[in-house]
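@channel sequence for tomorrow's demo:
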Amino acid sequence: MSGDARSSERVGMVAVALTAILWGTSGTVAALAPALSAVTIGAVAMCGGGLLQAAANVRVLRASWSALIAQWRVVVVGGVCVMVYPLCFFGSMRIGGVALGTVVSLASAPLVSAVIERIADNRRLTRRWSAACMLGIVGSAALALSRSESSHADTVSGGYSAALGVGLGLLAGLTYAGFSWAMRRLMNRSVPRGAAAGSVMGLGGLLLVPVVAVGVPTIVEHPHTLVVLGYLVVVPQFLGYVLFSRGLGRIDSSTATTITLIEPAVATALAVVVLAEPITVVGWLGIAVLATALVVLLAPRRGTSVSVEPRSIDREVDV
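structure tokens (generated this afternoon):
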């Protein structure tokens, strides 16, 4: 890989790391609106963020309409994954507990992404990615272990609920990997980044409108929650996915989903500082391991390796 390509790849990694930081604020902010269900919060945030992506990129969407129509199957797959992801992710945390839901959902995504890329794109896995992925999973598991006692009170008792929580978490990981791959696939096929993100996220937002409608009465009863929802829509979901799509323009989806494993570390640190939640030594070790995983991905490499597929060039000004 040339120096310019490696520099571009690092820029993509940093963009995704910033995305994970923004996403990591979601849990702490959502805790400020206890009157709303986790599913309502997730649906509103993803729906609003997705529709904003489409609105901000409407110009490039129009210019790329024929290319998107030619790749409509990829767009539909990505859009459906965007719709399903928040319902499964927040449902997993509500049923199986915050610790279990977060780890199963986020830790499974890089593995699923690797499988999808291997099957759909015939991409080989590198030792660097494998090491970073394993470190990320171990670090996430340590964080979950450190917070399991505090989240146990919110967990519905019984093995059935735990199994259901794991199942929803795995489906969340699958759909997260799915829409990440879909956006990257569109970019690889010469669809501008803004059009790829706007089409996939926008379609997912449209599909979530009925779910949001169900939660409207509760939101109306608690108007103060609009501030929380506004933040979640604009910052983690809109700005976060702008950065995420920019990162995907430079790195593959399996690397991107691996980097976002730092999200639990950010969420945990904020919970400790803002919500005064306890964290054990194991939790701090988990954060350290997650940081190590990021260093492994960003560290300079020697020799040659399989390069990232050429990224699409934005032919229109997009967000």
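heads up for whoever presents: The chain has one domain: 3-298.
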